[in-house]
Amino acid sequence: MPMGSKVRTCLWFDDQALPAAEFYCALLPDSRIDRIGYSSEGQEMTEPGKVLTVDFTLAGTPFQALNGGPHFTLDEAVSISVLTEDQAETDRLWAALIADGGAESQCGWLEDRFGLSWQIVPKRLIELLNGPAAPQVWPVLMQMKKIDIAALEAASNDG
């Protein structure tokens, strides 16, 4: 993480901080691993020489992943929300994030194989929910897992 970044979100993992950060960085442009911190003698969270923290930038936003052990787990109270440009980007991210043990949820939410929750939200959904057709779009959205832009537009009579 650049030293000038004052605020970042820290994500607690048992021991998957580096593979998770590498996976997330591969998904979005303007993403990279910035620094890997290793445990030293006397640190209780992990063995000396093992990865302790991973500072990474995800689409321009700084994060930190911590190998803190099994004491805490990720849950839906925290999620990463990604605003997608179109159905193709929505589909690509959705498929990558639910692969290898991830799980779909409702209304564009999912959980990846590391247990982190994501919201994959097409820009068009935001436009429709903030427009005059919102009352027609909302019930259709509530029936979806992955967001289907064409179905939302059809419900709005704007497709």
Q: What is the gyration radius calculated from CA atoms?
A: 18 Å
Please state the average pLDDT score.
93
How many β-strands, per DSSP? 8
List the uncertain runs.
none
Strand content: 25-35%
Number of helices: 5
Overall spatial form: elongated
Q: In percent, how helical is the residue content?
A: 25-40%
Q: Tell me the distance between the termini.
A: 42 Å
Structural class: alpha/beta
- Strand order, sheet with most strands: 1-4-3-2
Order of helices and strands: EHEEEEHEEEHHH
Q: Quick one: biggest sheet?
A: 4 strands, mixed
Could you characterize what this model shows?
The chain is built from 5 helices and 8 strands. It is elongated, with a radius of gyration of 18 Å. 29% of the residues lie in helices and 28% in strands. It has helices at residues 17-27, 87-98, 123-129, 134-141, 149-156, and strands spanning 9-13, 32-38, 51-58, 61-67, 79-84, 103-104, 109-111, 117-122. By secondary structure, the chain is of the alpha/beta class. β7 (109-111) and β8 (117-122) form a beta hairpin. α4 packs antiparallel against α5 (149-156).
Brief summary of the model shown:
This protein has 159 residues and is of the alpha/beta class.
